[in-house]
From TrEMBL:
Coiled coil: none annotated. Pfam families: ABC_tran, BCA_ABC_TP_C. It comes from Cryobacterium ruanii. Residues 21-269 form the ABC transporter domain. The lineage of its organism: Bacteria, Bacillati, Actinomycetota, Actinomycetes, Micrococcales. Gene3D superfamilies: P-loop containing nucleotide triphosphate hydrolases (3.40.50.300). This is ABC transporter ATP-binding protein.
Length: 274
């Protein structure tokens, strides 16, 4: 990958053969407000991409477009050669796109492990008959689900609290649970929306390491929105910067850190220390 591109190159990604995710000219307007415009991205499989930008820059809108919560006004999204532009959320989930939200959405009152099991159940549902008659196939399915849930909880350092209510956990642990549930869907593309929001510095460092580990061990393609510049500079291989719905820069952390438009728009004078 090139070190980076400026405004022109960033907003006009050209289709590259075999790219895992190809987004071109993506935009949406709400009433008179253009939340995102001419967004382009060619992402290879297995990359870890950071998205930064000031409040209201269009970051969450981009994720909403990629997960079908918002339909684009312009542009196209192609995942593994398949045009998924404007597809509904369940179609995109089936295509392998999973996400977490800025506001934690674990299921109230449900234990940690049951939250993960519900997510696993969304991915692989048993047949109605096997459930009704409690067949050996159903029971072995349940055993597999339990094993998978435990494996995910161990990875996310949540196994010790698996029987506690998910919504009663400390904030950082709830965020990790949300990631566990997203991983349970066995995604190809994982979108993390401000996973470190509200975390203390220790939790943030732990999460940084965890995301790197998940990326490494699952070989997942991850897109990560984050306001914490230190976090993103130290976690991501490539960073895209949005401002007022426009992509203003795209490149490696070292390139982004020094990019004048990025410094002016977002990072501020402290950016060089990030
Ligand atoms: N459904 C919607 N209807 C109307 N306006 C919207 C909608 N969703 C987003 N917007 C507007 O689009 C712009 C971009 O919002 P978005 O949430 O994508 O920004 P963001 O970069 O994620 O900001 P933050 O860092 O504060 O979460 C904002 O001005 C927001 O108010």
């Amino acid at each position: 990958m090139a070190n980076g591109t400026g405004v022109a190159g960033a907003s006009a990604a050209t289709a590259s053969e075999g790219a895992f995710l190809e987004v071109a000219g993506l935009g949406v307007t709400f009433g008179g407000l253009t939340a995102l415009s001419g967004f382009g991205l060619n992402l290879e499989q297995g990359r870890l991409l950071g998205i930064i930008g000031p409040n209201g820059a269009g970051k969450t809108t981009l994720f909403n477009l990629l997960t079908g919560l918002v339909r684009p006004t312009t542009g196209s999204v192609v995942l593994e050669g398949r045009d998924i532009t404007g597809a509904k959320p369940h179609v995109l989930a089936d295509a392998g796109v999973a996400r977490t939200f800025q506001n934690i959405r674990n299921i109230r009152g449900l234990s940690v492990i049951d939250n993960v099991k519900v997510a696993l159940g969304l991915h692989e549902s048993p047949s109605l008959l096997s459930t009704i008659f409690f067949t050996p196939a159903y029971r072995s399915g349940q055993f597999r689900t339990e094993q998978k849930a435990r494996t995910l909880l161990q990875l996310l350092n949540l196994d010790d609290v698996r029987n506690l209510p998910g919504d009663g956990l400390p904030y950082g642990a709830q965020r990790r649970l949300e990631i566990a549930c997203a991983l349970a869907l066995e995604p190809k593309l994982l979108l993390l929306d401000e996973p470190a929001a509200g975390m203390n510095p220790t939790e943030t460092i732990e999460l940084m390491e965890l995301i790197k580990r998940v990326h490494r061990e699952f070989g997942l393609t991850i897109m990560l929105i984050e306001h914490n510049v230190h976090f993103i500079m130290n976690t991501c291989e490539r960073i895209q910067v949005l401002n007022y719905g426009q992509l203003i820069a795209d490149g490696e952390p070292s390139y982004i850190r020094k990019h004048p438009a990025v410094i002016e728009a977002y990072l501020g004078a402290g950016a060089h220390d990030a």
